Amino acid sequence: METERLQAKRLFMQYGGSTIRMYKAGALETYKAHEVPPALEAEWVREMIGGFAQALSIRDWEAAAALEETARAHKDPQALQQAVRFASRHLMSADSVVKLKHAEHLIGMLKALNGIAGIELSHEAIRTAKVILDDVIAQPLVLDAGHDLASLGLKDKRALNQRAGMLIEALKDLLAGSR
Question: What's the pLDDT tens digit per position in 68-87?
């Protein structure tokens, strides 16, 4: 029984808890055969979110993308809360591209959790993303090794600022909708 649960958990974690991804990979029937209770799946989601939160970094945005994907798939506000906590404490020392991508992922989580995340958490996330985007616009372009604007489809600082401006407009729309 314990090894079956471990196999089920391994499948769950491997596919981010997404039954669609399990189906596409041909692993859904194997996973369903384990008859995992929803309470255990919820525990695994919290464990995944905790792992992604620990992996958040000012050097890249992969963990932020994973948190956004988890928020979209499982509608868990804990993903947004962890991302906001990290961003508000650590992100101001990141390079321009990392700041922009983290802000994009915060906005993606806000959209995915619209109506699910509490008003206080939503406003804190909006505030944090706005501060980050204002900093991207106000500060000179800073790029760490391995980061470039071309990978984001941007040519220069002006294009980066325009994208940040579009994200600020998205934040305004989210704020107007959350009142």
Answer: 999 999 999 999 999 999 99
